[in-house]
Structure formats: structure tokens, C-alpha cells
Amino acid sequence: MATIYEVAKLAGVSLATISRVINQTAPVRESTKIKVEAAMKELGYRPNSVAQSLATNRSNSVGILVSELGGPFYSELISRIEAEFRNAGKHVIIAAGHSHEEVERERIEFLMSRNCDALILHVESVSDEYLQELAEQNKAFVIINRSVAALSDRCITLDNQLGGYLATEFLLRKGHKRIAYISGPMWKNDASERYKGHLQALKEYHIEEDISLFYEGDFQETGGVHGFAHLSAKHSKHSELGFTALVCGNDEMAAGAMAVAHDRGLDIPHDLSIVGFDNVNFSHYTYPKLTTIDYPIAEIGQMAARWVLKHVYKQDIERIQSVFKPRLMLRDSC
Amino acid sequence: MATIYEVAKLAGVSLATISRVINQTAPVRESTKIKVEAAMKELGYRPNSVAQSLATNRSNSVGILVSELGGPFYSELISRIEAEFRNAGKHVIIAAGHSHEEVERERIEFLMSRNCDALILHVESVSDEYLQELAEQNKAFVIINRSVAALSDRCITLDNQLGGYLATEFLLRKGHKRIAYISGPMWKNDASERYKGHLQALKEYHIEEDISLFYEGDFQETGGVHGFAHLSAKHSKHSELGFTALVCGNDEMAAGAMAVAHDRGLDIPHDLSIVGFDNVNFSHYTYPKLTTIDYPIAEIGQMAARWVLKHVYKQDIERIQSVFKPRLMLRDSC
DNA sequence: CTGTTAGCGCGTTCAC
DNA sequence: GTGAACGCGCTAACAG
What we know:
2 copies of one chain form a homodimer.
Chain A: H1 4-11, H2 15-23, H3 30-43, H4 49-56, E1 61-66, H5 72-86, E2 91-96, H6 101-113, E3 118-121, H7 128-136, E4 141-144, E5 155-158, H8 160-173, E6 179-183, H9 189-204, E7 214-216, H10 221-235, E8 245-248, H11 251-263, E9 273-275, E10 292-294, H12 297-311, E11 323-324, E12 327-329
Parallel strand pairs in A: 1-2, 1-3, 3-4, 4-5, 5-11, 6-7, 6-8, 8-9
Antiparallel strand pairs in A: 10-12
The structure holds a DNA duplex (16 and 16 nucleotides).
């Protein structure tokens, strides 16, 4: 790779001038500019962004940390963030924290040591205190899908409790009395918030929480499979299910539960109504098509990107919406 | 962020010594080593990897370029590659080329300017010549899902033609005579290879190609929807379909086609058999569960990562498998 | 408008 | 074992 020196020599100017035509940081006479550009082209010169980054303490790249790189949910998030930055000329460095505290911290430090201008964080295991410390080191970052009270101005979240409420309230309104619930890992904030919404709806309809209708899954397909097996084993009397509806903490688990229900010969929605959460891309491939709570993940990602564009790159961005509202996607599984 | 100078001052040694304990590049007396480590901890010091990278011309990170960041296919690929590098202590920088030549080139240059030690490329639009030039600049990179003759030692591919053959041959063996085909964009190598396999099977069973049974889609769900609409409109006489089986270039299109077929009141597999391609994660959520060709994308990603580990980071890796064989995943849609 | 000169934070000879 | 000095490729004052 040619360096800026070689370009300077070939063009017969100093290296500062080269820098100027690259960055348009000062006026350059048209004729010398042309010479420089010719030289750059001849040598196939590209500025070394590592060196640029070291010199300017800017990298034009923002770090993104999510829990997993796979799965429909995160890939949609990442995809949208990348798109947003791409047409702002910024780049993206992606890492996965695997919902594991040490890994999350290590990843954050990696992204910081990589000189990212800002970070977009979807972290689940790291503590609120840690995030606050990070903020005090005045590192620019936004938090997605988690609200830290002291950092509320940089949190972009979904009202998960409302989502949980919406799902259950809808079923109650349809006349269901016994509603089972398969949640994600309760230590995860979104999982517990969603369940909280479920309880809120029950309470509003004067129905008591029945712990035997609750199963804590893992947000994966298998969680739905095991959850359904567990719940139905506990409740089936004379081959009848002990509940008429099932709310799942996310779509993967709903799909898993649905598959098992199919295998048991249950007719959905006749024998059992199922509601998911997230509205991931495959949720309308299921049969019957899954009724679910829409998680506007793409918009949230976009908003996070705009937060960065506004606060770090000083672009003119109107308003930053920090709390998004979920809504019910009515399909055929109810 | 503390720098190496501050650590040196606090520990009362020179900065060279700090560098030595970090990189274990030369013996350091135990006592001073302890002092240094204490100082590093006290300051919360982390080496600035940008500076390291500039000094060593190594970044310990490898660039990955895929067509899209979203969708089940690429996210699984990325996820596996990241996992493989993670436990080798390497990092990953991801970019999307959007199947667009200019973007792909720009992305490659970005990754190179980012000082990546190696590149893993899934590119569709850039020319073979361009890739060869890249190789001549002796940049380390592997190519996924595309075979460039001159670069065969660094291509890791699936035998797409075999996959296409397998799908159609299976249907022929089951007695189907009229088999429709919805392909991906034919300028994409994998799409045309798969179709080639389809033709090969037909030929083997002495059935002539019927262009009216072919539709060129876009590898997206809508391609399946439109494709099925198109094919059935052209062929339905008296509300009867002109074909008994349908092969799709990938699972997304198969799911789209299946949904339309459902809407038309067709019974799958009774009225129509469908075969997909890729075996993406949602393919067993469809109803009926989709029969498809398994694309071992995770293994391919892993192998690409190992190629890099072996050739660039000089790790002991046994054998690099360069061509993978697809196989039929028999499920319920046939 | 353009050239000179310092750094940016770190790795790496080469002496001691 | 340890320190001083130089260089990685580029930007940013400061002169001119």
C-alpha cells in the first residue's frame, strides 16, 4: 500500500497538501489538486484509516454490541443500524456479548480500544453501575432495550410491560380465563417486564396468578418445546389441556410450542390460542400464522443510529424518540 | 484512557518495559513485572489497539464481507465465524456489500484500510479479475460460496449444482413429471448452478426443459409469491395446476410460494410438492415442514475461519475442506 | 495557498 | 534486564 509520502513525492508537493485534498480541510489550488489526484490514482493510494484514527482520535466507525449475531431479531437490528450509518459515511464494528457479563465487558473494551466514536449497546449482563461508570468516562454510547434510570437520556427502549399486557389483555377480552405463560429467562429485564404486563392484565380482569401455568424458558425454540410439554403434562386431565391460551415471551418459543401442540394433534386456534412476542420475520411462516406483539426493532435500531449521528457527529436530527410502543399483530393463531 | 506513558511513570520504569510485560516479548524481572501490572490495574490501562495496529501492522482482526447483514442465512454464517475467531482471541469487523459492485469494492477497501489481517469474502458482483488482482497484492483472503478458478485454493464452496440435482432428482424419483422451478437471480452464480443441477436431473430422466415452468425470482419471499402466481396463472386449466411439484432456489421463496398455494386452497403435499434450498432456521416452522436442501453454512463459515487461522495466524489446523456437499432434508412438503 | 514540524500511542532495535 | 530513540501513516498547528 502506497503511503502519503510517496504520493507527495510523485506529485511534487508536501504531504500536508495531500492531506488537505483528501480531507478538504483547507483550500488547495485547483491545478495542484489535480496533480495530487492524478498521483493518488496512479499509486492506487488509499489513506490508512488506522493511522488517520490515531492522529485524529476519530475513527468514523461506531461499535455495536449485541447479545448474539444469529437469529432474526438481532440480524434485523444490525442490518438497520448498518444501513443508517452507511449512508452517513460511517462504518460499523460489530461484536457479540453472548449475554455473559465478562464477555460483554471485554467486548465493550475491545470496541473502545478500537477507537470507536460511539457505541450502541444491547447488553444484558453488565450492571447498571458499570454503565454509569462508562458514562462518567464520557464515552459516547446509547443503550438499546434496557432502561437505566440515571442514563435515561441515552436509553432507547420498548415498553415491554405494555407488550405483555397487550397480549394477555387481548386473550382475556376474547373470553379466555386460563392463560399459560412461557417466559424468557426472568433475570433478563425484557422477559420480566413482559411477564409483569401479563400479571397486570390478569389483575385487571380479577384473575389470580396461577404459578402452575408459568414456565421459565430460554427465549429459544427449545424453551417453547419444553415449556409446552411441562405445562401440558402438569395440567392435562383426561387428555384435556388445563388452559385455553398460551402467551410466549418471544416468537421462537411460540413456534416451538406450536410445533409440539401440532404433534399432539391440537387444533390451533380452536383448542389453543397462542400469542408470541417480537414479530420476527418468520412469524408469518408458521401455521397458523402467529399472532404476536410487534417489536419495532428496526426503528429502534435506526433511532439509536440517529442518536449517535446527532450527539457524536453533530448532524441535524430532529427528535429522538426514546420509548417505543408495541402493538398487537393479529393473525391466525388466536 | 490512560496511555503507556502514564503507566510507565507510575511504575517508575520506561515505557519499553511496559510493552514487554504486555506482549511478553522479552524477559522482565518478576518484581518489576508486578509493579507494572499494579500500575496498569490502578490506571485501568488498556493498550490502544489502533496504535498497536499502526506499530505492528497487525490488527488481530479479520474483516468479513457478506451481501446482507439481515436474514437467516448470513446471520448464521457470521455468527459461526465470529464464534470461531472469538475463541482464538481474534476479532471481527463486519460489512455488507449489498450485492452491488461498487459497494462491494468500497467495503473491501474499507476493511483493508482498517488493517484487517485477513478478509473473508462473500461477494457476488465484483469480477473474478478484481479478486485476482487483490490476490496479487498479496492480501490474505478467502472466498465463500463462489469459485474462482485461478484462486481455487482459497475458495470454500458448496456444490450448488449437486444441490439442484438432488432436489429435482428426488421429485422425479417420486414420479413427478411436471416440475416447476423458481430460481434466484440468474446472474448470481449459486442461482444458476442450482438450476443447472435441475436441468441435469431432468435430462437424466429424459424430460425436456419447459421454459413455461421456469420463473426467475429474487431469492426473497416475494419472489416466491410472484413466481407461484405467475406459474399457476400460465398453467391452470380449469383451476388445475399445470405442475405437480415445485423446486425453489431458496427457502424464502419456497415459503412465499407455499403461502400463496395455501391461500389458493391447495393441499401440500397432496396437490403440490415443494422443495426449498438452504435449510435456513425457519424452514421447519412452515406448514407443512419444508423439504429442502441443506446448506451447511455454519460449517462453511467455520472452515473459512480456519483457513485464516491456518494461513494467516499460523495455527495448527489439519485439513481445509474446500468443497462441501449438500444433502436432502426430507420433511413434510413432498 | 503551501511547506515544516510536532505529535497520536505503541513496538522495536540498539546500546547499556 | 532495562532505557533511549526512532518509526508506523497521518493530521494539525504554525509559519511563510
